[in-house]
Amino acid sequence: MTGLIWAACGTGFTFFMTALGAGLVIFMHSDDFSDKVRKAFLGFAAGVMIAASVWSLLIPAIEESESSGRCSWLPAVGGFAFGVVFLMSMDIILPLISEKAATAKHGHTAMLVLAITLHNIPEGMAVGIAFAAAAQSTDTALFGAAAALAVGMGIQNFPEGAAIAIPLRQNGMSRMKAFICGAASGIVEPVFGILTVFAVNSAQLIQPWLLSFAAGAMIYVAADELIPAAHTDDTRTGTLSIVVGFLLMMALDTAL
């Protein structure tokens, strides 16, 4: 129950930060959200996700396997691969959904909304399982790592909420509808975070696999979606944003 409460609080915070980012559409003019700012947001999110995948997910998965006397690398490698395959499969399905659900004018934006909403699922799972692991252990460092992960995911969700809401506004949607769509993209995090806690509590053996699954899914999103989108010209905005996001998340993980 403790893990469930903390997971609900952690994923609730990440959802709030998504909504907060989407709220920029109410106060900003759509012209203020330049392409350079968008690339900086996406690069920053990628850096946070990469660091979180290593320090908050893969390393704890390996340590959990070692402490239980099982093969340390197998859950990390296997779960990571499953996460990548899952997101690759969704990449095949998403364009089909977009073609049916969106007009030509809004097709690209619909793809962005669907992509960010989809990759919020492993983020919610990651936060949920991190708090579940902390609740089942006497090691206080695990709780610090879970809190750092929630803070890091929340920080990178802020620009993601803006990255959804503001393009919708630029395409003619009202401010309030754009805000609701941006905020709604983060609702999957509390849902899947809480579901993951139940899964971990019922089958603790799969905990390292779930941690690694979330890491694989997040790395895939960063490499396939966010980093390329942050590097569509010759500027170094995307690169520097990735570095800043990575360093911030790494500092949070090691400090907490």
From TrEMBL:
CC terms in the record's Gene Ontology section: plasma membrane
InterPro entries in UniProt: ZIP
Organismal lineage: Bacteria, Bacillati, Bacillota, Clostridia, Eubacteriales
Organism (species): Ruminococcus albus (strain ATCC 27210 / DSM 20455 / JCM 14654 / NCDO 2250 / 7)
One Pfam family this sequence matches: Zip
Family: Belongs to the ZIP transporter (TC 2.A.5) family.
Name of the protein in its database record: Zinc/iron permease
Keyword Transmembrane in annotation: yes
Domain of life the protein comes from: Bacteria
Chief location bin: membrane
